[in-house]
Write a structure and sequence with these properties.
With 119 residues, the protein is mainly beta. The chain is built from no helices and eleven strands.
């Protein structure tokens, strides 16, 4: 079991920056993939960015070049730095973790943190 707690959401003006953090309840070195998804009102949840235990990152096209995902193994956190925010970035952002033990994968989600970008 992995508990994920997000922080750092809030209200920001367009063009501004925000840093989201996700604290995991276990050593993240043992977690295969961690990342962030988001869900805007009336839309499906979508990928924002992921990072593997080996540090390989993946970004969705809408945030590529404006966002940086990172892992802090010492603090068991995953962070998402978002710059040049746009109104379309407004959404609930969810932390995600995937573990894999003996070829069995399990997905975990945080409760979500609201990000609102005002134009």
């Amino acid at each position: 079991q992995v508990q994920l707690v997000e922080s750092g959401g809030g209200l920001v003006q367009a063009g501004g920056s925000l840093r989201l953090s996700c604290a995991a309840s276990k050593n993240i070195k043992s977690i295969n993939v961690m990342g962030w998804y988001r869900q805007a009102p009336g839309k499906q949840r979508e990928l924002v960015a992921t990072i593997t235990s080996g540090g390989i990152t993946n970004y969705a096209d809408p945030v590529k070049g404006r966002s940086t995902i990172s892992r802090d193994n010492a603090k068991n956190t995953v962070n998402l730095q978002m710059n040049s925010l746009k109104s379309e970035d407004t959404a609930v952002y969810y932390c995600y973790a995937q573990t894999r033990v003996l070829a069995v994968s399990r997905d975990y989600w945080g409760q979500g943190t609201q990000v609102t970008v005002s134009s």
